[in-house]
């Protein structure tokens, strides 16, 4: 992020996520990464959006200052998470 006062490139001191409670028209949830900045040159402080993530639907999209970037295609997102079933008794008996 660039300082709005003097134009010095500034890295965020702190970042946090804001999750939109409502999905957009495509059923995606928007996660906004907010940042707290302090310019190293003029000490100006401000808050701004670092990036936006759109999760769900058919793709994951990341929006940064440089533009949108699609980070996952449909196949990746549609892949079901692997569920590993563990039997607790089996684990405990192995430790004996
Ligand atoms: Zn500045």
Element string (H = helix, E = strand):
EEEEEHH
Query: Helical content, roughly?
Result: 10-25%
Can you list the strand order of the major beta sheet? 1-2-3-4-5
Morphology call = extended
The number of strands is 5
Low-confidence stretches: 73-80
Going by helix content, strand content and strand pairing, the class is mainly beta
Characteristic key phrases:
single chain; 96 residues; mainly beta; five-stranded antiparallel beta sheet; 12% helix; extended; binds zinc ion
Topology at a glance:
Blueprint: E1 12-19, E2 29-38, E3 45-55, E4 60-64, E5 67-72, H1 74-78, H2 88-94
Antiparallel strand pairs: 1-2, 2-3, 3-4, 4-5
Bound molecules: zinc ion.
Residues 3, 5-6, 8, 39, 41-42, 44 line the site of zinc ion (ZN).
Write structural notes for this entry.
The chain is mainly β. It has one domain. 12% of the residues lie in helices and 42% in strands. A five-stranded antiparallel β-sheet has the order 1-2-3-4-5. Residues 3, 5-6, 8, 39, 41-42, 44 line the site of zinc ion.
Short précis:
With 96 residues, this protein is mostly beta strands. The chain is 12% helix and 42% strand. Mean pLDDT is 78; it is low at 73-80.
